[in-house]
Structure formats: structure tokens, C-alpha cells
Amino acid sequence: MSQAKPSPKKIAAEILARLEAGGDPVQAAGAHRYFREEVEFYGWTSSAVRALTKEIHAGVRGTWILADALALAEILLREEKFEAKSAGILLLLQFKKEFTPAVFRTIKSWLAKDYCANWASVDTLCPEGLGGLIERHPDLADEILGWTTHRGRWVQRGSIVAFVSLARHGKFLDQAYRVAEAMLGTDDDLLQKAAGWMLREAGKTDMPRLRGFLLKHGPRIPRTSLRYAIEKFPPDERKALLLATKPNPRPKAKRGS
């Protein structure tokens, strides 16, 4: 007799009940310090959420297909609390080898609707979810460049962190640097940090190219991005790059006679 297939709605209800029952108010209160945006928590550690999703995945393995995981993710991403979003993302990523370009557009819609309205959810979903799709469907690397001008903050962050893992392995560096260049004028610190993180990873495989990019754009680079980007350079070179890219002071206006 074949195993009965549990519905995404039923699994979502089980996950939410367990998250509610196992939450720690002290852990929840402490988690707020990592976020400037408003994020609600049950009070689970990251490792505990991963263990829960691993257990749930073991229960649906062999009966679920990608469509079921997408439906579950949609349900849980609509929830306010962080751990629910995380569980939905982590379970979806168990099916990442089955992702098609249609999933690429689904993820964009989630980001645009603020279903991942915090940096940690975006950074869990996009490097593996979008990055893996880009690697298998290289044309998507050019499509995601258009996300850099989207009005949504999380769509923009997704366009950056999608290249983090790829850049770390020396892949799609041309597109990664184009995304970084598109972020030079942003005043959003979460986008500045993401761009700096991605540049740092790109530098691990090609530090001369990173150095050249930093020197070329110099004062245009937000200092937050720059500090993240140069973390792997030797201390003396970090100081030299900070100095070489320092914005020029504006000349003082002359007093009238």
C-alpha cells in the first residue's frame, strides 16, 4: 500500500503548532538585536529550526513533488514570525534540484510582496535558490540584473545575494560586478552590506579584479560596502584601499567680499 500524501496545508499547520509549542520567549527577545526591521519570533535557534525541517522533510520524502514544497513555502512565508518563514524556505530548498525558471519568477514575486521582509530570510532563500537556478540556466543571470532597479528593497537584495555563492567559486563574475556597480548609489545600508559581502566573496577567487573594481569606482563606493569588500585583504592593503577610495572633501565656498 502506498504511503498517504500529506497536504501542504496539513504540514504547515503541524509546523506552526510545533513552533508555537516549542518557542522560548527569552530566545525570541534576544533575536531582535540582529534586526533593525520589525521581525517577530517564536524563539527557536537556527539549528533547532533546521532539525525540525529535516524531520518534516523525511516524512514527506517520496510523496511530495516541487509543487507541494512551493505551496508549503507560500503558506509559511505569509506568516509573520521568522521561524515559520525559515521552515518554509528550508523545506523548499530540499527540492532545489527540481527548480525551473518558473521558480525564479515565483521567488521574485515573494520578494516583491515582502514575504521575506528581513535580511536573514532573503539570505537563506536566494544564494541557494536563485544561485542554483542561475548556474543551471545562465540566461537568468542577465534577467536578474533588471532586479537592481526594482522599487522593492528585498528584490534588490535578492539580486545581490543570488551571486554570493557563485562569485565565491569564480562563476558569473561579470554579472556579479554589474550588480555591484548598480548598487554604488544606494543609501540603503542593507543593500550596501549585501553588495560588500558579495564583492568580498568575488575577491576570494580573483582578488586583483576586486582591487581593480574598488580603485576604479573609488569614492562612489559606499563606505559600508567597501569595508565589507576589503575584509580579506592584508591589513596594510585595507588601509591603503580605504585611503585611495576616500571621497574628496567638498571645497569650501568662498566668502563674498
Structure characterization notes:
There is one protein chain. The protein is mainly α and 257 residues long. The chain is 64% helix and 0% strand. The chain is built from 15 helices and no strands. Helix 4 packs antiparallel against helix 5, helix 9 packs parallel to helix 12 and helix 12 runs parallel beside helix 14. The longest helix is centred in the middle third of the chain and has 18 residues. The chain is globular.
What are the SSEs and their pairings?
Layout: H1 8-22, H2 25-31, H3 46-60, H4 66-77, H5 82-93, H6 101-112, H7 119-136, H8 139-143, H9 153-161, H10 164-168, H11 173-182, H12 189-205, H13 207-217, H14 223-229, H15 235-244
Short description:
The protein is mainly α and about 260 residues long. Helix content is about 65%, strand content about 0%. The chain has helices at about 10-20, 25-30, 45-60, 65-75, 80-95, 100-110, 120-135, 140-145, 155-160, 165-170, 175-180, 190-205, 205-215, 225-230, 235-245.
